[in-house]
Amino acid sequence: MEIITALLDFVLHVDKHLEAFVATYGLWVYALLFVVIFVETGVVVMPFLPGDSLLFVVGAMCGVGLMSYPLAVGLLFTAAVLGNQSNYTVGRAIGPRVFQWESSRWFNKAAFDQAHAFYERYGGVTIIAARFMPFLRTFAPFVAGVAQMTRAKFTFFDVIGGALWVGGIVTIGYFFGNIGWVKQHLDKIIWAMIFVPGLLVGVGAWRARRG
After folding, report:
1. Residue 165 has what DSSP assignment?
2. CA 85 to CA 82: how far, in whole Å?
3. Which regions of the chain are under pLDDT 70?
4. Which among 163, 168, 175 is positioned nearest to 193, based on CA atoms?
5. If I label 95, which of 10, 62, 142, 197 is the partner at 20 to 30 A Cα–Cα?
6. What is the C-alpha separation between 181 and 136, in angstroms, rounded?
């Protein structure tokens, strides 16, 4: 329970935690961010890390000079692409056997099924769209690997999706993250980043199964 509470606090107050980290450790913040983005996109059992909100806050910190915008975007884009490649490779190695797995502490069967339903209906575009959807973005590259999508085709969608996700959200944070109203309601914005895409994923997966 303490771990869950600490994780929730980090997600909802990621701006304060990052500022404190920068003040204490300086440039090591880039290594921390690289690891977080790589793990969230590259390890199928870690879909709960704060990808969207983290990128937004990084953009806001770049906007006030606490971090370098080009360095942050380039590094996090690389982490996002490599994370997806790692996830795809694991899925391709495991193959169809994953359909026999049951939900456990380390595997979210419902999230996997949602990602698979999306993939079956929308194919490679899922890799791009999933970047903006918590949980789905962790499972989409894994599902693509399980479905044996070719590496070249996957990499094409992976690079486009990674560029749009990292570049887009960091840039939005850069220009809007330090507006007074945004800073005052950041916790609500983070909740919206989590629940609105999650709702869209649920509706889309339901429609995909029906279709």
Report:
1. I
2. 5
3. 1-14, 44-50, 99-108, 191, 193-211
4. 168
5. 197
6. 30
